[in-house]
Design a protein that fits this description.
alpha/beta; elongated; single chain; 32% helix
Length: 133
Amino acid sequence: MLSTEAFAPATPPRVAVVVDLIGDLDATLADIFAATLDRLTADGATDLYLKTRHVAVTSNDGMTTLAKALATARARGCSIAVDPGSRRMRSAFSHEGVAYAATAEGVLPRNARHLMIARHAAAESKSKLRRSA
């Protein structure tokens, strides 16, 4: 007699997700990213590729919230590769203590889900943001 348990995978399959942040990395965009990352890791996403090539400006609050969200996901067992995309974003990630790769382009799986999260800050909050691109 055959048992279906014998054919089940020993470990659950790894789910890869590419997240592309676009626009102004302020506290609001970072909160949106953190909530999205929380849902992804709860749904079983185990590989994350974060791309910040199209981030124009950053704020301290945005970078702090982003770093906390990445640390929480890593603590849950999520494998994270960060592609900063620019010299200024590399500097911002270094300042926050976030490890990043030179580029994640060579390791991106072809079957990964791709999410783009974009936000442009209102004119009154632009004065608090630093140019990063």
